[in-house]
Amino acid sequence: MTGLLAAATRAADKRAAFRAGLASNRIQRFPGAFNPLVAKLIQEIGFEGVYVSGAVLSADLGLPDIGLTTLTEVSGRGQQIARVTDLPVLIDADTGFGEPMSAARTVTVLEDAGIAGCHLEDQVNPKRCGHLDGKAVVPAEDMVRRLRAAVSARRDPDFVICARTDAAGIEGIDAAIERAKAYADAGADLIFTEALRDAADFERFRAAVPIPLLANMTEFGKSELLSASTLESIGYNAVIYPVSTLRLAMWAAETGLREIYEQGTQAGLLDRMQHRGRLYELLQYQRYNEFDSEIFNFTLGGDQ
């Protein structure tokens, strides 16, 4: 039953793997998972980690990404995803869901949920999507207090605390670099600079900031979509693809639903659907037979 009902790897080992990956000189690729099943697919394909996006969680709940979700909702989804994968999970913790004491509590709750790390940002609460205009950031000293509180609450020293700054598009890159250095001094393990525009911006940050860096390669935003190999050559340690799987799935769902509405049948969509057999393979149905033959007591036809 090992690794069947839940991941075989302990949370502490996932956190240690995340730390080791950041120090490996190989870029750690973290696609976003909008549910646990996608996380299983991310692991099967061979990525290094799983990302849980606040924007995706908001969208999944039918809400805009403007700070409406709660710590309970975010940690609950994070726990569901972390439970099924042996990969480390990095989660978006927005602004920490309140004042510094709330940021501290957020870290303890996410640790208990089996998460490997989180990022906290320096936006004013309520925040907004990092690639929208009209953002505002708190004074750097306020974010430093937020980070120090989070670091002080950490019980597992391998839990990664990432500091995200949205200052580049508001105060300029030089100011964002200074913030990043202050956040590193406050105990952040990883820096995430939102909405950089091109490779030159990423190179500038890498030259100026001495600790591991994370790049956000989100579609339709302000950043040029750089390959993982390019980011690795610049010296970045991790990259997230936060909304990619949701966008792919929603495009397919909308296209298919429109065809069903117009044609009255899904018959023309079958070659664009995941077959039942593939779903069962991903869910490891046959391994459940080792536990209880009453659960898996049928055969899969070739046309499923």
Automatic annotation (TrEMBL):
<dbReference type="InterPro" id="IPR018523">
    <property type="entry name" value="Isocitrate_lyase_ph_CS"/>
</dbReference>
<keyword id="KW-0479">Metal-binding</keyword>
<keyword id="KW-0456">Lyase</keyword>
<comment type="function">
    <text>Involved in the methylcitric acid cycle. Catalyzes the cleavage of 2-methylisocitrate to yield pyruvate and succinate.</text>
</comment>
<dbReference type="InterPro" id="IPR039556">
    <property type="entry name" value="ICL/PEPM"/>
</dbReference>
<comment type="pathway">
    <text>Organic acid metabolism; propanoate degradation.</text>
</comment>
<dbReference type="GO" id="GO:0046421">
    <property type="term" value="F:methylisocitrate lyase activity"/>
</dbReference>
<dbReference type="GO" id="GO:0046872">
    <property type="term" value="F:metal ion binding"/>
</dbReference>
<dbReference type="InterPro" id="IPR040442">
    <property type="entry name" value="Pyrv_kinase-like_dom_sf"/>
</dbReference>
<comment type="function">
    <text>Catalyzes the thermodynamically favored C-C bond cleavage of (2R,3S)-2-methylisocitrate to yield pyruvate and succinate.</text>
</comment>
<comment type="similarity">
    <text>Belongs to the isocitrate lyase/PEP mutase superfamily. Methylisocitrate lyase family.</text>
</comment>
<dbReference type="GO" id="GO:0019629">
    <property type="term" value="P:propionate catabolic process, 2-methylcitrate cycle"/>
</dbReference>
<keyword id="KW-0460">Magnesium</keyword>
<dbReference type="Pfam" id="PF13714">
    <property type="entry name" value="PEP_mutase"/>
</dbReference>
<dbReference type="InterPro" id="IPR012695">
    <property type="entry name" value="PrpB"/>
</dbReference>
<protein>
    <recommendedName>
        <fullName>Methylisocitrate lyase</fullName>
        <ecNumber>4.1.3.30</ecNumber>
    </recommendedName>
</protein>
<dbReference type="InterPro" id="IPR015813">
    <property type="entry name" value="Pyrv/PenolPyrv_kinase-like_dom"/>
</dbReference>
